[in-house]
Records
---
Amino acid sequence: MKNILLTLTLASSATALLGQTETHSQSAATVQPAAEPHLKNLRQLTFGGDNAEAYWSFDSKAITFQSNFKQWGVQCDQIFTSPVKKMGKDTTRKSALISTGFGRTTCSYFMPDNKHILYASTHEGDSATQKLTNTPGYDAEGTVSPDGKSIVFTSTRTGDLELWIMDIDGNNQRQITTGLGYDGGAFFSPDSKKLVFRASRPQTEEEITKYKDLLSRGLVEPTNMEIYTCNVDGSDLKQVTQLGKANWAPFYHPAGKKILFSSNHHSKRGYDFQLYMINEDGTGLERITNESMFNAFPMFSPDGKQLIFSSNRRNHGTRDTNLFLADWVD
């Protein structure tokens, strides 16, 4: 989290699609690494820069994501969208720019109509955007429930980083979590009745003092986080993982009983992040990815057939992080 004002903004994807232009040619490699049996027909979708937080449209046809790819004319993270079938071709197309191109943006998510996109931004908007929150500080990490009725997001409006829920139009905003520590990166279960999220819970006096000091400066140290679930009203709060280090980017399996997430708990170096799957009750931990040193932001398509995630595999020694798409095999 940056020490900047972030507000949740709504933009239309329709006008942005008019600005697509051709860019450089790239080889669209179909990648099938060994020892990743859940991932079939793995395909690379982007080819440069940092591309992350790719989330599906409700009809499973398009994605929205953030990128700082310089050849697309941006200097820091901006929000783009594209039909999945047009990505990863031999001649790649510039994805449609959704955000204004100003400030820094993050955490984009399709609205139920598949035409509008929710995202967080430091800009103050223009005639093509609509602000859904207006609280000084940090309102971000918004995602939409599968039934299209609610939005969950993280906010500092109470002085701590807590989960909040509001109606799809921004009304009826109410606090969900209350424990001291960072609560964020929340997603709904497939039936829209539960939330899964990452959280830190400082315990000792030293940990609490450090957390509050960082928070006062608009910062969070994401080195110790675990995965939690709760009902959408905040009840039945449960800690799913007790692995240590950083466990984050959780997302429910389509059946609603398992959770995918990214973790470096196995790593001696700290940076090696792999995707794991675990039962809701914390049993049955299974490693999903084995290639590269960074795999995160998994999201199943609404139809449950495909998984999209970010990875630095196949980046030829650069620091690029790209989007990858795979058919999911249970």
---
Amino acid sequence: MNKVFIFLFIYFVTFPAFSQKVPVQVSRSRTASGSEWQILDAESLPVISGNEFPGLDSVSFGLEQNKRYYLEVSVLPLNRRDTSLLILYINSEPILLIKSDLAPGDHFYSFFTGVRQNQAKITGGSSATISDFPWQVFLEAGNYTCGGAIISGDWIITAAHCTEDDFGNLIPANQMDIIVGANNPRSGLEGKKYFVSKVIRNENYNASTLNNDIALLQLSAAINYPNATPIRLVSKIDSAAGSTDPGVMAWLTGYGLTKVSPPTVPTVLQKLQLLHSKISFWEQIRRSRTRTCRSRTW
């Protein structure tokens, strides 16, 4: 899923334990000449500039947490190789990857200095309650189990790889069902089961790279059960207001493995927080710990 980029990191700022600022780092590729950058606040006022740190490939500084900022990148009309230009990190996690194929001129990228409440890595998390995440469903597809989310009365969104068998064949809809409203769907004592009547997998899904890894499931009946309601989808207005900015914290929930080796299956719904990023989700996973999205049942 990935290209690998190597940078020289130079840290020169330390942050006190009780600081209300979040550590931010901008790393500039050694091959990315002819570009400048600066950070602007929500009112477009300059906060910090790369020109303040001549000769450094990477600089670290603090920004107020839970605020919206802009990364301005100014590109000169020079020929550059196809590589990364800048990477912006928050709390050591990459959230913005700026490529060197930008047109000459000024380019602006909004981001948010979100702070994770739970510092757990990708695999693992903490126990959650279904009433806090009532859109979460448990998918049983052939010999596999996966997660999904309710997006309307009879539609579920899930990963495309959850709809295929070991040979890449689409699992028939009549071999799929979901369980809603359950903290522990594997117990057989919680929630309500609904059957799948139709599977729509993204036509550009690539099983090798997991690009476009998304699918829709239509149920045979509309969901009507406590703690089973659709998630509110992000609108264009929400996005314009910054809800999808890199650096915004998002909750990841599911019933998948909490440990890969040896495989450990949780007894209840799990949750953890992730930073929204403009770097591909799978590149983030590669940079962190492996996450297994589905598990086999026998």
---
Amino acid sequence: MVNWPIPQTVIELRAFLGLTGYYRRFVKNYGILAHPLTQLLRKKMFQRSPQAQQAFDNLKQAMSTTPVLALPNFSQPFTVETDACDDGIGAVLLQNGHPITFLSKALSRPHRSLSIYEKEFLALIMAVERWRPYLQLQEFIIKTDHKSLSYLSEQNLHSEMQRKAMTRLMGLKFKIIYRQGKENIVADSLSRVGHLMALQAVASIQPAWVQEVINSYATNPKAQELLTKLAVQSPDENGFLLHQGIIRHQGKVWIRDNSTLQTRLIAALHSSPIGGHSGTNAT
């Protein structure tokens, strides 16, 4: 990293930022350090400047000297601190006050028009979704600087976004604590530099029926019982386990006796173009 050659083209600069961006969660103020370089990607012509050269040198130095974060200890509780601003959200996963990993993400155009309450709520949900494997084994604490969120469990859910998001919290044991903004330094800083890291985004794809399976748990008493049980012990004595929000039994997705969902899954896995049965002519 120290001997990395000076980028001469936009492609070479993207390669450098792609590598450093992969480790951005371990670098303090990564968005600020990389800002002069990311600005070059937005211009039609690649032109180096003294500020860009200084940013290049500073980023190489930061990448080669950044401290290693702590490894998680699953016998101790986790703490999630979240924050949101106009352009992005930020969060940090901690244990005994020491950071385990960071999250900083720019908000899309539709999400920027949300109210501050909805943005803070979105930051909370996205952080929990990102770190679910760390959080599903025992009770954890969520700290936010938006006071109304500390009463989330007592509120009526009015919007469709709130109802969908709350299904992702099912089966998790957590406590939300209000923390003044001036004390929520790390998450606040990450939320404000999230828009600078929009070029280092990673997307994942999953079938639509996976989310339908998760949503079906909300009206299934047996699923609610299992989610509560698996939040403490996964897998349980009967072989049920919770993986990425989905209940599984002996390696298979568990959907109970939901006939509508069964029919849709059969159609998706049998009759669709990717299901393996494309018809006589194609076969």
